[in-house]
Fold:
Amino acid sequence: QVQLVESGGGLVQAGASLRLSCTASGHPLRLYAMGWFRQAPGKDREFVGHLRWNGGGTYLNDSVKDRFSISRHKTNPTMFLQMNNLKPEDTAVYYCAVQRLGTYNYGTWGQGTQVTVAS
Structure:
């Protein structure tokens, strides 16, 4: 059983930066990819980006790729989402999720962390 815990959200002014963290625990993890998603009030969940665990390749949605970046801890099963130049439209609950080896979707989700950007 894999569990995910996100942290790092908060209330910031437009133009500020935040770094979200997502730590996976459980055994065995067998991670294939970790992803970030967000959901704003009244809107559908949006894919933000993901990181391939072995190899470290990343992909970011066009809507954020010029301002956000994804990275991982060198040794621990932790993924980061660095968000720069935040805008009010980035306000959402941010979720991380895991796709495990041998599966074809994100099957484990964190509880989410709120990001609020004031104008």
The first strand starts at residue 3 and ends at 7. The two ends are 40 Å apart (CA to CA).
